Amino acid sequence: MFFMAPPRFFQFTLSLLLMIFSLAASPGVFAAEELVVYSARKEHLIKPVLDHYTKKTGVKIKLLTDKAASLLVRLKTEGVNTPADLLITVDVGNLWQAVEQDVLLQINSEVLKENVPHHLRDPKGRWFGLSIRARTIVYNTEKVQTADLSTYEALGEAIWKGRLCLRTSKKVYNQSLVAMMIAELGTEKTEQVIKSWVNNLAAPVFSSDTKVLEAIAAGQCDVGIINTYYYGRLMRKKPSLPLALFWPNQKGRGVHVNISGAGVTKHSKKQKAASAFLEWLSSKAAQNLFADGNMEYPVNPKVKTASEVAAWGRFKQDESNLAKAGELQKEAIRLMDRVGYK
Ligand code: FE
Question: Is the N or the C terminus of the chain less surrounded, counting Cβ atoms within 10 Å?
Answer without folding.
Answer: N
